[in-house]
Amino acid sequence: MRIYKIFRAPEWAALERDGTTAGAPVDLADGFIHFSTAAQAAETAAKHFAGAGALVLAAVETDALGDALRWEPSRGGQLFPHLYRALARDEVARHWPLPPGPDGAHIFPEEMT
């Protein structure tokens, strides 16, 4: 199964440069890296990244994350994937640009599922 992490451009550039990331400031504050499922990603973008401009969407296979990945309740009781360790760049199976559309909502790639 694939899960998705939304990165701001500087966060993605840092992962590309450093090879690992402990996540964005919210991830560091919460003690885990926030991910979303394909069904949750657009709502996550709208809620947490509105007005953020162009983003990067990274897909990660859950099998690559081992026991450090936990599914925990969040918005409305939905289970969200949380990674309790750093994410390595080589664990990202695929990534896409996530541009804002004319209405400001980010445009997700059709092939992300």
UniProtKB/TrEMBL annotation:
The UniProt entry, under InterPro entries, shows: DUF952
User: Superkingdom, according to UniProt?
Assistant: Bacteria
Q: In this record, what's one Pfam family?
A: DUF952
Could you tell me which PANTHER family the record lists for this protein?
BLR1139 PROTEIN, DUF952 DOMAIN-CONTAINING PROTEIN
Q: Quote the protein name from its UniProt record.
A: DUF952 domain-containing protein
Taxonomic lineage is: Bacteria, Pseudomonadati, Pseudomonadota, Alphaproteobacteria, Rhodobacterales
